[in-house]
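Q: Start with the shorter request: fold the first protein.
A: Done. Sequence, then structure:
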Amino acid sequence: MSGRNRASPRKRPRQERSKATVEVILEAAAHVLVSSGYEGTTTKQVAERAGVSIGSLYQYFPSKEALVAMLVERLHQRVLGILADKLVPHPITDLAQEVRELVRSLVDVYGVNPELQRVLLEQAPRIGPLQVVQEIEARVEFLVQGVLSQNLEFERPRNLSLVVFIIIRALRSAVWAAVVERPELIGTPELVEELSALVLGYLRPLERLAPGPERPKP
């Protein structure tokens, strides 16, 4: 079985009872991942913690990679849900405040159960790219681009889709690094302010650079 298939759920629950079972399994997986770490986690442990048979777990998740993949997917869905509420098209009257609120919302998402977030982010490369996560990120980029296109004017031509791509990746990388390497920063005003300054410094019109000294000709 390929790594990609192992990271895919076997089936999605449709009935309410099945959905409830999956929720219990995922809650158990989150608990075991935090307490035992990825390497120490087994599907048997998760099933025991959830109070379900190993067969019931395997009906939905063929491996612990699939459990991690679903938890990663849900993390991105929470990010999309929060940003979608913030990024309804509207005129921006205070760019700094808007950016600060968006950054704070993003940091707050990763501030919920940071121990679990750290395990998920550390293991994300192991499970490889997930189509649903890529779709969520594309949706976030679309929302950000829609707001910026209505509100920002640049002194020089800029590829707005590339601008948004860079902003999203820079923020994601910085927040993920903080969760994994400097978890004490999550939830602090300093992190929000520095990330906001990063975005604002990139978004605001660039000042024209004075020409540098001419190099002597050889």
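Q: Next, the second protein, separately.
A: Sequence, then structure:
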Amino acid sequence: MIKASIGAVPGLILSFLILAAVLAGTTALISRARKKPLLLPVLLAICMAGVSTVTLLPSGAGTPVGQCDTGLPGHVLTSSSSLLNIGLFAPGAALSTLLFRRPATTAATFVVFSGLIEFIQSVTPLGRSCSVTDVTANSIGALLGVAGATVWLRMNDRPLRRPLRDLAWAAGIALVGSAALAGGFNSQVKGINVVAIDDSRQAFGDATDGSDAWLSSEAEAVFGPGTHATETSAEKDGSRWKISATTNRGTISGWWPDRTLEKAWASNNRGDTGKLSGAQAGQVARTFAEKHFPDSLAGSDQTIRTLGDGSDAAYLVTYRRHRHGVMMPMRLDFTITKTGRMIGFTSKAVKDPALPQATVTENTARAQAAKAAGAKTTSAQLLAQQVGGQWRPVWLVGANNADVWLDGVTGQKVTPDK
């Protein structure tokens, strides 16, 4: 608060000097009229002028009106701003204790005063930041000032004034002040946990540090030299982050910190006029897969299909892996033009699950599906699917323009998880 105020509040020094002169002059006149010592009252007046100008002078920064940071003050003893707050409130509390010799009342008054300052900052358009951390730092400063002054009084044989009454006044001020502030904050102020937000942002930055550079490099490998990201985003998924980027040539996404790509698609998704054969397109895809998807490539079968007609057609190169006649959940697809340009790819890198042995044959599955759909079947494929969170061998049978899913072990109709 103070550090920001000095740089952000116009006329802070001048305002302090004017207010200090007014308060100190008035205090000196009153003390002289009452024939009391001048030094402590005048110094206390100057300290309060400093507290008032630093905390309540309008500024162009801060949280919106009606909000206050309610985050736990975990950095109160390590933050430079909080340490400055402690230093701001300690002298006034010490001088007040020396002047009135009522430490409990002084401590309670300064703590409530600190809360009042934050409340005023939150409900008025001063452009100041209200926070629990500031209240805590101010209160720590006040308590340190009171403690230091109390020790000095005892060391110099200066007795405290009416200790029991001092405690009674302190309890009353604390009770009434805290109740009033609690009511005011509950009715007028909305709490926001800025500390948690900042910590979350810091954790996000630490967790994804380096991901942008990695994905930009991969985008250039896919789309060619001169590719640069125009927008990036990150979304947490369990212990990983899905990193996505929009580039001047297309979109790409992958997983961090795994450094595994998920998919990419070029902005120019039309075929190119060229003479590349299907086998050559398959080699382009394999070379890229060997570097980026070796686990998916191992044990997989490659299939090449032509998309479109003529010299500007493209090739769809797919990789699928089968275990005991069951297609595993891994998926890897590439779209390659006849010039060898990669339009895009999609990767679903899933480890082969352990499955029970399928006992339902294709003929049995087709017969059951045809009966359920009331029509002839057109296709049947045995896939590894999750059903109720468990991996199962499942027949996907096409019949009557519909899909029928049958458990490969029990033959019962099932609905795979989305």
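Q: Describe the second briefly.
A: The first strand starts at residue 67 and ends at 69. Residues 1-5 have pLDDT under 50 and may be disordered.
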